[in-house]
Design brief:
The complex is a heterotrimer of chains A (87), B (155) and C (91). In chain A, 24% of the residues are buried. Helix content of chain A is 83%, strand content 0%. Chain A contains 3 helices and no strands. With 155 residues, chain B is an all-alpha fold. Helix content of chain B is 59%, strand content 0%. In chain B, helix 1 (4-26) packs antiparallel against helix 2 (35-51). In chain B, 43% of the residues are buried. Chain C has one domain. Chain C is built from 4 helices and no strands. Chain C has helices at residues 2-22, 34-47, 52-60, 62-83. The termini of chain C are far apart. Classes of the chains: A mainly alpha (87), B mainly alpha (155), C mainly alpha (91). At the B-C interface, helix 4 and helix 5 of B face helix 2, helix 3 and helix 4 of C.
Chain lengths: 87, 155, 91
């Protein structure tokens, strides 16, 4: 069944993208890179919602997660400092 | 954050994002999405306009925009449409559907043919919630932008 | 003593997680519910919108959406009230 193989391939790819982007968001020292990694996480999550046939949630996740929170984090970082302070 | 590349991209991209947000709000009773999703997409377009411009221009652009009034209008409109339902049966009853008013056309059963003039109160609720969400999210990011400490843009 | 207690709590939590994972349903097959069938069959004639999700959000669960709108309104007015002094003469 070619369709089912395609579905599971997409699932595995999205899982790898989610894990990689979340680990990158934790490990990056530059805060702007970490915020961009979080935006990539939201985008992969919205693709996953779309594949699982929930387009409403996918639109909300793409708009709020990848657009709004990224802008708010970027503005907050610009107000303070863009390097992680290690004490 | 205001290089020539970003300015040109914003000038091309922002109208398309705004039109897409309006489409999602207006077609909330036919296609996936609705008030909240469309309002979030519309607010993303406005935030792109905010982030890609310098402070003076943003202040001039949004000085005359009644964002807080739009927010209150959305909340009161939702309550008003809900109270309109008391006219027929209960709170939030769909009183406008199949009545011939605007958005009150006869709803076809079965497979969705995509008639915009249907839906009754659901379309009005979508529009009010969309107005409310776009005004609220945009005003939050606008106030974040306006309290910037650094005056000149550095990146 | 505290370390042993923490280890015990951690092991118990992992055990619960394993038990929950084993008893999961197969992927992509949610349990059948009466309410889903009712919504799918009757939403178009009762709520008079072709999109069933919108019917559920704004008609069947209208009070829920009203509460969500109230939460958003409260959050926005709180943020604007707290940060108004720093933003110059904006709103």
């Amino acid at each position: 069944m070619i369709n089912e193989t395609f579905f599971w391939t997409i699932q595995v790819l999205i899982a790898i993208a989610l894990l990689g982007s979340s680990i990158a968001a934790i490990r990056f020292k530059n805060l702007i890179s970490a915020v961009i990694a979080m935006a990539v996480f939201s985008l992969a999550l919205s693709v996953e919602f779309y594949v699982l046939q929930a387009p409403d949630v996918a639109i909300a996740e793409a708009g709020v997660g990848a657009g709004l929170t990224t802008a708010m984090y970027l503005l907050a970082i610009r107000n303070t400092t863009d390097e992680e302070v290690v004490e | 954050m205001t290089t020539t590349i970003i300015k040109t991209t914003t000038r091309l991209l922002a109208p398309l994002i705004l039109v897409f947000g309006s489409y999602i709000i207006l077609h909330g009773h036919l296609t996936p999405g609705g008030g909240f999703q469309g309002g979030a997409v519309f607010a993303s377009g406005l935030i792109l306009l905010i982030v890609a411009n310098v402070r003076d221009k943003v202040q001039k652009l949004f000085e005359k925009t009644p964002l807080t009034q739009l927010e209150s209008l959305g909340a009161l409109g939702f309550l008003g449409i809900g109270l309109l339902g008391l006219m027929s049966y209960t709170f939030l009853k769909n009183a406008i559907a199949n009545s011939g008013f605007l958005f009150g056309g006869t709803t076809p059963q079965g497979i969705n043919p995509g008639y915009l003039n249907t839906g009754g109160t659901l379309s009005y609720l979508n529009i009010f919630v969309g107005t409310k969400v776009l005004a609220g999210l945009t005003s939050i990011v606008l106030i974040f932008f306006l309290i910037l400490r650094r005056e000149r843009d550095e990146w | 003593m505290r370390k042993a207690l923490g280890l015990f709590a951690f092991l118990a939590f992992v055990l619960f997680l394993f038990a929950a994972t084993i008893s999961l349903r197969p992927f992509g097959e949610p349990p059948h519910a009466e309410m889903d069938s009712y919504f799918i069959e009757h939403a178009q004639e009762e709520a008079s919108a072709n999109n069933v999700v919108t019917s559920v959000v704004f008609d069947y669960r209208g009070f829920d959406t009203l509460g969500e709108a109230t939460v958003l309104f409260t959050a926005v007015s709180g943020v604007l009230m707290a940060l108004r002094h720093y933003g110059g003469k904006e709103k």
